[in-house]
Amino acid sequence: MHGSMKARYDVLWIGLLTGFLLPVLAFFVFFLAVREEQSLSQFLAEVFSRNVFTQVISLCAVPNLLIFFIFIWLNWLYSARGALMATIILALLVLGYKWLVA
Fold this sequence. Notes:
single chain; 102 residues; mainly alpha; 83% helix; elongated
C-alpha cells in the first residue's frame, strides 16, 4: 500500500469514527432482521421493556472486532487504537447503564 495512503487513514479519529458508526450500522441491520412490522420507536420500546438493551448494544459492538483486526492487518495501528478506544467507551457506557438501572 502506498505510504501516503497509510498516513492518510492511519489516524486515531478514523478508528474512533469507525468504532462508533459500525455498532450503529449493526444495530440497524439487527433491527431490520428481527423487527416484526414494527417501527424503530416500537422496537426500541420493546428492547427497553424486555430489559435487553445492554445485550443488544453489546451484540452490535461485536463487528468492531472485525474492523480492529482489519486495521491491524493493514498495519494502521492508530486507527486500530481508535477502534479499540471506541469499543472500550461503548463497554463503559453499557456497564454504566447496567449499574444505574440495576
